[in-house]
Amino acid sequence: AQRVTQPEKLLSVFKGAPVELKCNYSYSGSPELFWYVQYSRQRLQLLLRHISRESIKGFTADLNKGETSFHLKKPFAQEEDSAMYYCALGTPSNDYKLSFGAGTTVTVRA
Amino acid sequence: KAGVTQTPRYLIKTRGQQVTLSCSPISGHRSVSWYQQTPGQGLQFLFEYFSETQRNKGNFPGRFSGRQFSNSRSEMNVSTLELGDSALYLCASSSPGLPYEQYFGPGTRLTVT
Asked: Which residues of chain B have pLDDT under 70?
């Protein structure tokens, strides 16, 4: 069965410092991985997908199949990055189920 | 394009009652997924519908059910409510071919007393 683990519930960093959110997954096949973000009083929204290998709002995430990880990184955190971040796993077998990690709350301090 | 809408936004029910929540997806989206969000359990998958068919279901008791209509609007129903059903219920829609790129609604906050 697929599973997503985000080991940090809370992460606090200073503005301008690097931030890294950890995500590990368990799935025997080739996964599709995503980061979703929820800003205060806003809807949950898609931030990044591993397939497009893009940088959004300065965030990047690399899929490491050997370590079964998909960590989210940003070199210089901004106050507007304060939010709840969820790592999510979809499976190409198309069972149409998106499995979410428990989430990490990021606070960026001035 | 209008986003995903959910009604009602807030609901207070008593134990033993039943409740129906509604979700209207983004125009053109035919897949609708439902999630339960609680502080303790996070986001838990309830079920997913596409073209009026349930394609997958999470590990919830049979008291939780759903359906989808021909216009892709979806409803979920919870019967015999329990205190533990208090949660934010989120609906998300996605376009054909991109089932995991989901657009979420604002949620319905259900409180069971």
From this structure: none
Interface size A-B, in CB pairs within 8 Å, comes to: 52
Of B35, B58, B104, the CB nearest to A43: B104
**Interchain proximity B42–A97, CB inside 8 Å:** no
**CB of A83 within 8 A of CB of A39?**
yes
> In whole angstroms, what is the distance from residue A71 CA to residue A87 CA?
9
Cis peptide bond upstream of B99, omega within 30: no
Residues of B with CB under 8 A from a CB of A: 3, 31, 33, 35, 42-43, 45, 48, 50, 55-56, 58, 90, 92, 99-107
Average pLDDT, chain A: 93
Q: Is A103 exposed, middle or buried (0-12, 13-18, 19+ CB in 10 A)?
A: buried
Task: For residue range A33-73, list pLDDT tens digits in order.
Answer: 999 999 999 999 999 998 887 889 999 998 998 999 999 99
Mutate to test the interface with A, among B38, B43, B53 (most CBs of A within 10 A): B43
Which segments of B1-113 does DSSP mark as H helices, in order?
A: none
Q: Which residues pair with B112 in a beta bridge?
A: B13
